Amino acid sequence: MTVRSRFEPDRQLTARMVLTMFLLGLLYVGFVAALIVLLKSVVLIVVIAGGLLVAQFWFSDRIALYAMRGRLVGPEEEPVLHGIVDRLCASADMPKPRVAVSRMDLPNAFATGRNADHAVVCVTTGLQRRLETEELEGVLAHELSHVAHRDVAVITIASFLGVIAGLTVRFAFYSQLFGGGRRDQNTAVAFAAVMGVSAAVYALSFLLIRALSRYRELAADRAAALLTGKPSALAAALTKVDGEIARIPTRDLRTAQAFNAFFFTPALRPGSTAARLFSTHPPLERRLEALAQISAQLGDETP
């Protein structure tokens, strides 16, 4: 479901989100069925994973802000930032999210929250320092489109299956699921089966989520460009941020890599063609090409 706003509806994004959730749901049902056959304590695993999902979904905004050292700021403290968000929300006819700033030199931004009423848009001081007002406006429009299209919430829910798969592997090692530590032949077979099923489920869910994540970034670029009418400003922001991130030491980027799926641009770019299949974002060249096409369309429509 999409929040009512003037952001152009993206039916392909909605269809992809529905399809991804449907396929992950089928995968989840098959996974639980396999665990029921192999294990006796599957209920405990699902309950723990479900609790983590609820906590992650309900408190995602607080968790993200804490991890990224962000804090909420008011209009008095950040008048320029709030002014941009106010104008964009008025143009998009959508509720204004809370605004936060992260005191990090890494130039980036992200949106989080379970719905429009509990959303947060956060930018780093590194991004504010490096971008012009129009470029920052394009980045914030991109993040607001994530809120309007509800894809942040979908990505959060979709990660549930991977959490279960990961927990199952840990239970296999650290609990008494296999007869109090006895290592007979049946135990070894059950252990190998659980590990195999868990690894397969994690890999499939990982690929599905990554594919959706890459498309939602292109959809957000398009929605932001059409809302602001300035695709060239967003393209300039992408180019500038990508270049600036390349100058930051890799060890500093790795600390933020866990939030790649939520960032405006990834903290670390994939180094090979194969690695792009596992990337949370499409290549920079692909994003710039799409924005150039939008710019040409808007130019054609301009009298």
Automatic annotation (TrEMBL):
Signal peptide: none annotated. Residues 76-293 form the Peptidase M48 domain. The keyword Transmembrane applies. Binds 1 zinc ion per subunit. Belongs to the peptidase M48B family. Zn(2+) binds at H142, H146, E217. The gene is htpX_2. Its EC number is 3.4.24.-. The chain crosses the membrane at residues 13-36, 42-59, 152-173, 188-209. It comes from Streptomyces sanyensis. The keyword Cell cycle does not apply. One of its GO terms (molecular function) is metallopeptidase activity. This is Protease HtpX homolog. The active site is at E143.
